[in-house]
Amino acid sequence: MKRIIAIVAGGDTSEYEVSLRSAQGIESFLDKDKYIPYIVVLHGTDWHVQLPGGGTAPIDRNDFSFTYNGQKTSFDYAYIIIHGTPGEDGRLQGYFDMLRLPYSGCGVLASSLTYDKFVCNQFLKGFGVRIADSLLLRRGQSISDEDVLQKIGLPCFIKPNLGGSSFGVTKVKTPAQIQPAIAKAFAEAPEVLVEAFMQGTEITCGCYKTGRSAAVFPITEVVSHHEYFDYDAKYCGDSDEITPARIPDELRDRVQKLTSAIYDIVGAKGIIRVDYIITEGTKINLLEVNTTPGMTATSFIPQQVRAAGLELKHVLTDIIEDSFL
User: Fold this and answer.
1) CA 310, CA 315: separation in Å to the nearest integer?
2) How distant, in Å, are the alpha carbons of 184, 187, 232 from that of 180?
3) What is the mean pLDDT of residues 161-171?
4) What domains can you pick out in the chain, each with its CATH number?
5) Which of 122, 135, 247, 291 is most buried, judged by most C-beta within 10 A?
6) pTM for the whole thing?
7) Which residues does residue 222 pair with via DSSP β-bridges, in sequence order?
8) Which residues make Cβ contacts (< 8 Å) with residue 244, sequence separation at least 6?
9) Cα(214)–Cα(35) distance, rounded to whole angstroms?
10) pLDDT 10s digits, 92-113
């Protein structure tokens, strides 16, 4: 009998539309001989399932089911593809844990840890991972231009600390830009990260592990046509994404080994993606850990899976079935 899969998308951040595109990607990749997928969209208190013939039906949050034409449907598994809250920060994971519904990706602790960029990077720094100098501001706190210049310097990045790095991000090059950049980031999230700029080559590496298999994918080199890898560079084709990355084999091996180690340190599950910047030729610096990477046909992970000679259909099946072993 086929398992009924909820592909849970949407969320409450500016990456709502990106999440919907990722959900469509997951739906297209799933093995239809094994699974019956439904896209479930969450936005605030509006939880609904998209019906195959068009239209929607509300989700019963008591048991995460839906009823249509008098027939109740319960899900066997949830594939979470929300970029941001409540699907990437541990909230939805806790809900599914209480329902005893298996789901893709990290659990509550790993999700909440990696969702907070500052906390995650400081945590990994304790394991010897190189990170940029940074400062954290919470809502209601402020910092003077002079303190930013003295403690972090220019240029720097000012961005939301919680969530993705597609919205609310500013590369600050002059003192006059500091306060407007902080206000812009606060408009996206209640915490703001002020992070030192690192000049180098940006790369990203995906990884997944199950009880039966594991893979660290080929590395992608990111060459943005803009000053940094912003929304248009990510989603509008304004970048070159080169897989495998044009880096020496020795450096490739170290990045992949570090990615696997980070996976284990944070207690990850499912697919994650770790972003880095290589400075001074060979120094590996962590940018962030992404536990719900984009899954459109052109996203990094599908690119890397293809470059590894794997089929995403089989990778997703491996991840889903691992929950039922």
Assistant:
1) 8
2) 6, 11, 21
3) 81
4) 3-103 (3.40.50.20), 112-130+200-322 (3.30.470.20), 133-196 (3.30.1490.20)
5) 291
6) 0.93
7) 202, 241
8) 218, 219, 220, 252, 307
9) 22
10) 999 999 999 999 999 999 999 9
